[in-house]
Design brief:
The chain is α/β, with parallel strands linked by helices. It contains 12 helices and 22 strands. The chain binds MU-OXO-diiron (FEO).
């Protein structure tokens, strides 16, 4: 079902209430998502992005209800990832000669996935497409979050089409951010930033400052996922600048895996010690084998200190910790402190090995970590709590 935004712009995307996983199984989307596609009717008619591949036929048939496809003068592909380009094959089978405006990297990514030699028009920052009353200006935004990404600014309507930037995975019957619960909206927007955009924070800051320096009047930001920012669009821009600037809250997150609960007991006693010392700090305990990894990464992103625990197993550590350490490495976090902990009965290398991985991931190592031989007894519980108190004092 299409939704009219104003006289010139209509939303023609797909709301995916069923989506629970994204990027394969990497990202959980418990609140679904949407693939936003925008139809602009000026003197020229232009389509911005499409929808994910499984919905290609549904997307094109709904689009045909909105407009005869032969009326579309141009397609703008802001980003080549399949959740936005997936319906192109179905669409281009019907209108094969319509030009597709995208970046040079966009041509590479779209050709690389669909192996079609469509009528691509490469564009760079500052290039324009005159639609009649409005002119679209293209703004390359490489690594937000793919090399091919670009934004598009529609001047008279003052609308910024921002691809994956400023979006969130949140299915809604509504179209606008001001129509949904604000806490949930920003929680999902932060989760999206932490899990997808965090590694590119330097580019996020640079691109936002570049756009601010262009003095564009922005009345609305239309992202490729989730809700449209209609009221105070500057709020999400300010949030992005905050998140991109080594973001941290007054939070310590303790992530661990455990075989027979000894490392869990360590985590709980460290947490008790932290709380004894500092009643104001938020403490999160997360078992990486049980908790959602997308949520774990979001909590890590929000933290000032991250403690990572595993028992020693086969001269190493448990696989869920290995997976999370790899994901943390990929986030390219800065200005976060970390340490390791874990129980052992034999060789006991896990703490040292985890510490090395945390260091390689760019976290600042607070100390050599803490180990407990087998199960913590009363004396060891006290030592763990004291360790927690020392963490709280950092
Ligand atoms: Fe929503 Fe990077 O695609």
């Amino acid at each position: 079902m299409s939704k009219k935004i104003n006289d010139k712009i209509t939303w023609v995307g797909k709301t995916d209430w069923e989506l629970k996983k994204f990027h394969g199984d990497e990202f959980t989307t418990i609140n679904g998502s949407s693939y936003n596609s925008y139809l602009i009717r000026d003197e020229k008619t232009v389509l911005i992005d499409t929808a994910w591949l499984p919905y290609d036929k549904e997307y094109v048939s709904k689009l045909e209800e909105e407009i005869p496809l032969n009326k579309i003068d141009a397609i703008i592909a802001l980003h080549g990832e399949v959740d936005h380009s997936g319906a192109l094959i179905e669409l281009m089978n019907k209108i094969p000669n319509v030009p597709i405006y995208c970046t040079a990297n966009g041509i590479k990514s779209i050709k690389g996935q669909y192996h079609k030699d469509w009528n691509f028009i490469p564009v760079k920052t500052g290039d324009t497409l005159n639609l009649g009353e409005n002119t679209i200006t293209f703004i390359e935004a490489p690594m937000l979050h793919w090399p091919d990404t670009m934004f598009a600014y529609m001047d008279k309507e003052k609308v910024l089409f921002s691809s994956d930037g400023f979006g969130e995975h949140l299915a809604s019957e509504h179209l606008y951010a001001d129509e949904v619960e604000e806490d949930l909206l920003f929680k999902e927007a932060l989760k999206y930033y932490a899990n997808i955009l965090a590694p590119f924070s330097l580019m996020v800051t640079k691109k936002i400052n570049e756009i601010l320096a262009m003095n564009l009047e922005i009345s609305m930001i239309c992202p490729s996922h989730g809700l449209i920012w209609r009221k105070n669009p500057e709020k999400i821009i300010e949030k992005y600048l905050e998140w991109a600037n080594n973001y941290k809250e007054n939070q310590i997150t303790i992530i661990y895996d455990t075989m027979w609960n000894d490392t869990r007991k360590m985590a709980e006693n460290i947490a008790r010690g932290i709380q004894n010392k500092d009643k104001n700090v938020t403490i999160k305990l997360m078992n990486t084998a049980k908790d959602d990894k997308t949520d774990v990464l979001t909590e890590v992103f929000k933290s000032k200190i991250v403690l990572v625990g595993s028992p020693t197993v086969n001269n190493g550590y448990l696989h869920s910790i290995a997976g999370i350490l790899e994901m943390i490495r990929g986030m390219k976090l800065k200005d976060k402190k970390a340490a390791a902990f874990g129980s052992y009965g034999w060789s006991g290398e896990a703490v040292k090995l985890i510490t090395e991985e945390l260091k390689k991931a760019g976290l600042e190592i607070i100390n050599d970590g803490i180990r407990v031989f087998w199960t913590p007894d009363e004396q060891e519980e006290k030592r763990l709590q004291e360790y927690g108190e020392s963490i709280a004092e950092i």
